[in-house]
Each structure stands twice: as C-alpha cells, then as structure tokens.
Amino acid sequence: VFSLVLDVxxxxxxxxxxxxxxxxxxxxxxxxxxxxxxxxxxxGIRYANDALLRIIGxxxxxxxxxxxxxxxxxxxxxxxxxxxx
Length: 85
Known about the structure:
Strand order of the largest sheet: 1-2
Radius of gyration: 20 Å
Mean pLDDT: 87
Order of helices and strands: HEEHHHH
Structural class: mainly alpha
Shape: elongated
Number of strands: 2
Helix content: 40-55%
C-alpha cells in the first residue's frame, strides 16, 4: 500500500490570486474610458477594446475582419516610433 498526501494550499491560493488579478485587469481594459490595443510584431492588432475602436473610427466588425493595422492608425508624425520598439 502506497499513500501520498500533498498540501496544495499554496498552489490553490496562487491560482485564486492570479484569477482575481486577471479579473481586475480585464475590467480595466474593457472600461470605456480609454483605448487599449495589443499588437504583434508584424503590425497586426490582436486586441482592441470598444473605446479604442470608437477613437480610431473603426467598428468591431472591421477589427474582426483584420482591417486594422498599426501603421494605419498611427499618425504619420509618430510612425517612426513604431520601428523603435
């Protein structure tokens, strides 16, 4: 007979803390006060909240169809900074 007992209290507490942190971050990002976008290194935008879409004049459908790219929404005078990241 073999028996194994593990104390997973710390692991469960860590998962709960992470989940709560993710929930707070998601609420912040989804708020309609400011625009948020997450992009990739190829110039694509992988996530945009509704506030950003409203600011740049695109719809959720435009975003889902992949019609928005960093270069198109970056003002010309700031495009040189995109290459520095």
